[in-house]
Specification:
The protein is mainly α. The protein is built from four helices and no strands. It has one domain (4-80). The protein starts with a helix and ends with a helix.
Length: 83
């Protein structure tokens, strides 16, 4: 069983871990904790699924908009909105 403080530190590092912005040492610490802590491993899997879903949605939207020139139209509309 891992200490609660370790879980808190792991949770704080999950997003940078997914973004691959941690150092090699930090990644190793997170990986070790995830291998030992079922709760944090479940949190990581959820974050990973959400991260992939958001990335895929953004790629689809950008690719679709660029293909139809919708991006320029959308930007023009946003610029003309009172704000």
């Amino acid at each position: 069983m891992t200490a609660h403080g370790d879980c808190r530190q792991c949770e704080e590092r999950l997003q940078p871990y997914l973004d691959r912005t941690l150092t090699a040492d930090e990644r190793a610490i997170v990986q070790l904790h995830l291998s030992e802590c079922g709760r944090c491993a479940r949190c990581y899997r959820l974050e990973e699924v959400l991260w992939k879903h958001v990335r895929n949605c953004c790629e689809e939207e950008v690719n679709g908009e660029l293909a139809s020139n919708g991006l320029q139209q959308r930007l023009a509309a946003l610029r003309s909105e009172p704000g």
